[in-house]
TrEMBL record:
Molecular function GO terms recorded: G protein-coupled receptor activity; odorant binding; olfactory receptor activity
Family stated for the protein in its record: Belongs to the G-protein coupled receptor 1 family.
Transmembrane regions: 20-44, 53-73, 85-114, 135-155, 189-211, 232-253, 265-285
Xref: Pfam families: 7tm_4 (PF13853)
Name of the protein described by the UniProt record: Olfactory receptor
């Protein structure tokens, strides 16, 4: 009697196209795992890639696999099920993991930006600043800080009474706020603080560091400019890609009543597909050392 189920109302003609949806998304999920894990394996097995920049790239790709795993298995089960439902507390857990890993992505990109800043702007101090201890601390903070911040509203929402039991999406995100009878103003303010700490502040930090890198590169010789372009461009592309996806996630919840159901469904599938697939492609093609080892692997 105390078990509460939430229904996903964002699926479009799942009864008619369930097997097509399942096959396509299953292939995408397998491709995400294989492509990301291949580059992570290359970084682990090649000593020439045991540098802070590549360690952060491996952590980012692992983060992408974990984020996909939070969404894809449940999504695939729903495509084959008669009813697209989820336990309310399981939904809150999915919300927690989704936003922890999403925020970790920005923090890992911030760590990469700092690494590039020290490498290009302070090359003589790089070995003393970017030590193993420093890298380990950055990695721990990237996952630990978001978890501490996001667990607070999730625990508070777990005891908040529900007046609606249907989500307009296909997985649990911040649209769960539309399920509650009363919206807490304190939680809304806290949510804005978390958004700033987890996304906006890291983005501003990244932009600041890359501006500094561009200034130093323009004032230096051609080799420094070439190094800056080769190592910073992939991070910038990933940042732009992920920022667009997070912006979509925030906007779609605000405009969900005005947004056509089919368009929302298609864009959500793109949202969970593009970033985890683009990251290994960008780093595999644009990072010289990774690209070189990939060619060796497949030849």
């Amino acid at each position: 009697m105390n078990i509460t189920y939430i229904t996903f109302g964002g699926h479009v003609e799942v009864e008619k196209y369930r097997y097509i949806y399942f096959v396509i998304m299953f292939m995408v999920y397998v491709l995400i795992i294989c492509s990301n894990c291949t580059i992570v394996w290359l970084i682990i097995t090649h000593k020439s890639l045991h540098e802070p920049m590549y360690i952060f790239i491996a952590a980012l790709l692992v983060n992408s696999v974990l984020l996909s795993t939070v969404i894809y298995p449940k999504l695939l089960i729903d495509f084959l099920s008669e009813k697209q439902i989820i336990l309310y507390h399981a939904c809150l857990f999915q919300v927690f993991m989704f936003y922890v890993l999403s925020s970790s992505e920005f923090l890992l990109l911030s760590a990469m930006a700092y690494d590039r800043y020290v490498s290009i702007c302070k090359p003589l101090q790089y070995p003393t600043i970017m030590r193993r201890t420093t890298v380990s601390i950055f990695l721990l903070l990237s996952w630990f800080l978001p978890a501490i911040q996001i667990v607070v509203p999730v625990l508070r929402n777990s005891i908040t009474p529900l007046c609606n039991f249907t989500l307009k999406g296909i997985f649990c995100n911040n649209s769960v706020n539309h399920l509650y009878c009363v919206t807490s103003k304190a939680l809304s303010i806290y949510g804005m603080v978390v958004l700033f700490n987890g996304a906006l502040f890291p983005m501003l930090f990244i932009l600041f560091t890359y501006i500094k890198i561009i200034i130093v590169a323009c004032q230096s010789c051609g080799n420094v400019r070439k190094k800056a372009a080769q190592t910073c461009l992939p991070h910038v592309l990933v940042l732009i890609n992920y920022s667009c996806l997070v912006t979509y996630d925030m906007v779609i919840v605000r405009l969900e009543s005005e947004f056509p159901k089919t368009a929302r469904f298609i864009m959500t599938l793109q949202f969970v597909t593009y970033n985890p697939l683009c990251n290994p492609i960008i780093y595999g093609l644009k990072m010289k050392e990774i690209s070189k080892n990939l060619k060796r692997l497949f030849s």
